[in-house]
Each structure stands twice: as C-alpha cells, then as structure tokens.
C-alpha cells in the first residue's frame, strides 16, 4: 500500500455533474482507514466545496489548493502558502482593467474579482459559494493566487501574454466546459512543489506517493511522484505523464486508481 494518495478535483474526483460517486467516496474512506494519507490536490481554493472535500477525505491532514499556492492543514489551520509578488499582481490587475477580462484574486480563505456578472456567478456556484461581489482591492491578508476566467477561444491569447515572475496553470472543469481557468502563481509554485512539501510533512518518500489527475495543471505533481495516474478523460499532456491509466471520471476511474494504490 502506498503512503500518500493525491487527488485532483475537477475531472478526477468530480465528474460532469459536479458530484462525487458514492463508491469513490467509500473507496477513499477505506484507504484512509487503512492508514494511507489522502490529499486533495486542486486548483480550487481552500474554501467552498473543495474544503468540504478535503475535510471528508482527511480531516486532520495537509491538502493542496490553488495549484500549489495554498498548502493548508485543514485540521490545525496551519498554512505553508506562498504569496504573489506585488509587482506581478499589479501587472495582472492593470491588464484586467485594460482588457475587461474576468480576473479573480485569492487569499487562503477569500477571493475577489474584477468583473461582476454571469461568468463570475457561474464560477461561484461551481465552487459552492454564495455569489457576492467583492473587488480584489477589498481583500485582506496575503494574496496567494490570481486566475483568468475566460472562454476557451481566448485562452491561447491570455497564455501568450507576458507574465514575468509568474507561472501559469491552465485547467478546465467538466461542469463548465465552455470556460478556461488560467491560474497564476508565483514562479516556481505548482502542484508538484506543493505535493513535495506534503510528502515531506508526512515523512512519505515521493516514490511511495500517487497523483491522480486529468489536466495540464496536474502534470508537475504527476512528474514528482513515483506513481502518476492519468484519468480516461485526461488531456494529452496528462496522459503522456501517466505511468498508469484508468477510466473516465464519470465511469469511476478514480475508484480504479484507489484500488491500485492499495495494491502497490
């Protein structure tokens, strides 16, 4: 049995209906009961539905949120998060104002956004949050991540723009298939760097860790663990990074990955 199982949320834990299969919940609970640490490893923030998922999977454990910018122990509240550079955040806010695009800015526990409207409302609902208009300037605490929320057609242009001192982590969600989420963190921060810190906190060698994912933003974590698993609905980069391949999220592919982690 492996020591650490890291699980992406959108397209891995939850499917196109924005829910988790009951047999998947049961398998994950069984793995934790046997002594395996189970960690959310998501682009989502550490509140709303993602926090609920983390507490259900491992209520006193470390979890990765915001593509590695937020590393939070949901039991103690301890944080290993890393903030955005001020100059990078200023650049993003200026670009958002000039283009009229939706930019979200996050702390560990809250977020604000630049353009109120239907897209922001839909994303709040996806995250399991009450839609409340709050500007990034109203936030208090360390800003750990920003995120462009744009139609897929605009994604290549957004990613081609210069983001000095920052890293981009594009991802989608089967619950919002028309939308691309381009997460922005401090350079060098990723799911891979965060999973490394979680494994160190537990004293688990990365060779005895598994990462299950489906998207481009999961690849850095898949590359640092000994057992990378690509979902059947994974994009080309995640498929290429997978040592193991399982079924589609809607067919219970994560259940196969949990069973594999218990055998290894």
Question: Could you walk me through the main structural features you see in this protein, from its secondary elements to its overall organization?
Answer:
With 264 residues, this protein is α/β, with parallel strands linked by helices. It is built from 9 helices and 12 strands. The protein has helices at 22-33, 49-57, 86-99, 118-127, 155-160, 191-202, 219-224, 236-241, 253-263, and strands at 4-7, 37-40, 62-65, 70-73, 102-106, 111-113, 145-151, 166-171, 179-186, 209-213, 227-230, 244-245. The strands form 3 sheets. The protein has a 5-stranded parallel β-sheet, sandwiched between helices. The chain is globular and about 55 Å long.
Largest sheet: 5 strands, parallel
Distance between the termini: 5 Å
Shape by Cα distribution:
globular
Helix/strand order, N-terminal first: EHEHEEHEEHEHEEHEHEHEH
The counted number of beta strands is 12
Q: What's the gist of this structure?
A:
By secondary structure, the chain is an alpha/beta fold.
Q: What attributes characterize this protein structure?
A:
five-stranded parallel sheet; alpha/beta; 12 strands; 264 residues; single chain
Question: In terms of topology, how is this protein built?
Answer:
Elements lengths: L3 E4 L14 H12 L3 E4 L8 H9 L4 E4 L4 E4 L12 H14 L2 E5 L4 E3 L4 H10 L17 E7 L3 H6 L5 E6 L7 E8 L4 H12 L6 E5 L5 H6 L2 E4 L5 H6 L2 E2 L7 H11 L1
Helix pairs in contact: 1-9
